[in-house]
Amino acid sequence: MQYTSTKRIISPTPRTAVFEMKLILMRHAQAEWGFGIEDHDRALSAKGQVEAHSLGLWLTANDHQPSLALISDAKRTQQTFMALNQACKTAVLTELYLAESKSLLLAIQNIETNCLLVLAHNPGIGEFAVDVINTKPTHPHFFDYPPGATLVLDYNVKKGLVRVINFITPDDLMT
Fold first, then answer.
1. What span, in angstroms and rounded, lies between the C-alpha atoms of 133 and 9?
2. 0.70 exceeded by the pTM?
3. How far apart, in whole angstroms, are the C-alpha atoms of residue 108 and residue 22?
4. b/e for 133-169, b at 16 or more Cβ within 10 A?
5. pLDDT tens digits for 59-85?
6. DSSP state, residue 45
7. E strands, 48-159, where?
8. Which of 60-64, 96-100, 132-136 shows the lowest per-residue confidence on average (mean pLDDT)?
């Protein structure tokens, strides 16, 4: 499969746009430091467990429950998903571990679902969030994409249309 630049899918969003799905781009919640542990095997910290649970409550309260979740096979992403407490189909994908922006685009471009959650790692998930939208959220931590950062979009990959619905970090939910 040939990669086409994510810039291809960026275009102004007309008010009459029809979106195929809601797309949620989430970085795993805060993980323990991995002294003596392989990066892939790092677990969520106690704070990360609380953050992920709060993000799950926020998703539900704002009607952003995924119908399908694509999850990196790293321990911390799987633990984040479990703490979100979202009842949906899941696919745990090795290729999402430390995936680059272009790999994330390839992973989602043929998915048909109402609401897709992609749960992965920086720098790839943050770069993909930046690549896929024209008008960036004004949130002061958007470009940092800290642990637990969550971008919710209306998305139409076939027409190249994207509209930002919301961007939050766990700190926004803890205040």
1. 8
2. yes
3. 12
4. beeebeeeebeebbbbbbbbbbbbbeeebbbbbebbb
5. 999 999 999 999 999 999 999 999 999
6. P
7. 68-72, 89-93, 115-120, 150-156
8. 132-136
Which CATH superfamily includes the segment(s) 19-31+41-174?
Answer: Phosphoglycerate mutase-like (3.40.50.1240)
Q: Where are the beta strands (DSSP E) in 47-114?
A: 68-72, 89-93
Half-sphere exposure of 144 (CA within 13 A, CB side): 10
User: What is residue 34's predicted lDDT score, i.e. its pLDDT?
Assistant: 75
Average pLDDT over residues 31-55: 94
User: At residue 17, does pLDDT exceed 60?
Assistant: no
Say how far apart CA 124 and CA 101 lie, in whole Å.
5
Neighbours of 44 (CB within 10 A): 24
Task: For the sheet with 161-168, list strands across it.
Answer: 89-93, 68-72, 115-120, 21-27, 150-156, 161-168
Q: Which residue has the tokens 């429950």?
A: 65
Bridge-based pairing of strands 21-27 and 150-156 is antiparallel
Question: How would you label 85-119 residue by residue, b for 16+ Cβ within 10 Å and e otherwise?
Answer: ebebeeebbeebbbbebbbbbbbbeebebebbbbb
Q: Contact, 88 vs 61, CB < 8 A?
A: no
